[in-house]
Amino acid sequence: MTSLSTSQNSLFDPNIKHPLFPVLISGCPLSSNDLVQYPLEIGYDYSKVDHSIFSTKATSLNHWQQLLPPIDQAHSLGEGNTPLLKAPRLKTQYALPNDLFLKIESANPTWSHKDRYNFCVINAAVKSNAKGIVVASSGNHGASAAAYAARAGLHCTVIVSHDCPPHILKFISSYNAEIVKVSHDLRWPTLRQYVLEKGYHPASNYTDTPTGHPFGVEGYKTIAYELFQQLHFSAPGAVLVPTGYGELFFGIWKGFNELKTLGLIDAMPVMVSCEPMCGGPLHKAYISGEFPISLETFSTKAYAIACRKTGYRGLYVLKKALSQTLLVSDPDMLEAQTLLGAEGVWSELSSASSVAALKHLDLTQISPKKPIVSIITSSGFKDLIENQ
After folding, report:
1. Average pLDDT in the 12-41 region?
2. Domain chopping of the chain, boundaries
3. pLDDT digits over 30-57, tens only?
4. Per the count of CB atoms within 10 A, which of 15, 53, 140, 318 is most buried?
5. Which residues have CB under 8 Å from 207's CB, separation 6+?
């Protein structure tokens, strides 16, 4: 089986299609403008999909290669195939009529959902004959990109802010990545410099309006495919997603949308974005109708989803799908993190947003017969350690 990917399509105007290569990391050059950059998504020839891939258990992302951009299993670290755990105590705690499940993305090789993304990114970099990869991140993304670069034999530079905690620096450097410390505002300009002057492939966004990597986001679709199999070939009633730029939120939605396109599910789950209450650019963009939107500096301990800007992908889902956009406070996330421990799950605080949001969920949109799934994106050891 080979990839059925055909093109890079503008998410703003699907009639605009570009060849699969070169990878257009800066968004669509034809539909973007000086004010906003619109991301690209990968198009596929769905008429040729072998439906039997959904009836046989997936043990790796390679199982889904028909519905992913071109990938080589040699670059895999064993990402995907993460557990789905029933959470009866949390169901009782939040007085849910539905069964509640936790999708444990911290079971990935570098303990976060970013491994699905970076497996696809590293394949794009190798096929593009890149001299290395570069990423701006002070957490999950940087460590994951460094691991996959090491696996593929590519040099990796990770650009971090000066306040990056020592345990994260150690995590990143363990994969022999180069670490460059700059002020927070210089991370993207420095990344662009590596791309333009050194020929490195960018593993993270560097446009003013976040666009993300068009191949990387496709890796997130596999969460939806796995949930479909783990829930006995059906879709959940709702999926709650910790949300920063909205790429994971979009990827999971796209996976379910493809299942519906292929005739494998009748109805889509309610997609629920979960952002910090003190920020929430996606929520504010959707409620206000303004895009792009940029927030002033704010403070939250959920640093992995503490974004001042939102990308178009998340807004696209909120406009297209039955969805909810919820804001959660730091105390609620801390409470949820503690409650997750009682289920045997140690979650990063940002990940706990998908559980904290359960108390704000509009259950009238969700059939009580369908389960709810909270995505647990990362392990608790990724949190910032205070006073270190």
Report:
1. 95
2. 5-61, 84-112+215-382, 114-202
3. 999 988 999 999 999 999 999 999 999 9
4. 140
5. 26, 27, 37
Tokens standing for residue 371: 């389960």
Alpha-carbon distance of 351 to 113, in angstroms, equals 10
Distance of CA 263 to the CA centre of its chain: 25
Closest CA to 308 of 290, 299, 296, 319: 296
Tokens coding 201: 């492939």
- Token pair, residue 4, equals 């059925």
Which residues lie across from 202 on neighbouring strands?
A: 134
CA distance 354 to 376: 7
- 110 three-class SS: coil
One-letter amino acid of 127: K
pLDDT of residue 168: 87
pLDDT greater than 60 at residue 133: yes
Would you say the CATH fold of 114-202 matches that of 84-112+215-382?
A: yes
By the 10 Å C-beta count (0-12 exposed, 13-18 middle, 19+ buried), 26 is classed as middle
The CATH-assigned architecture of domain 84-112+215-382 is: 3-Layer(aba) Sandwich (3.40)
Q: Does domain 114-202 have CATH number 3.90.950.20?
A: no
Q: Helix, strand, or coil here: 175?
A: coil
280 φ/ψ sector (left φ>0, alpha ψ -120 to 50, else beta): left
- H or E stretch including 40? strand 40-44
End-to-end CA distance of the chain: 50
pLDDT for position 387: 35
List, in sequence order, the alpha helices (H) in the chain: 88-93, 114-127, 140-152, 166-173, 187-198, 221-230, 247-261, 281-288, 312-320, 330-342, 353-356
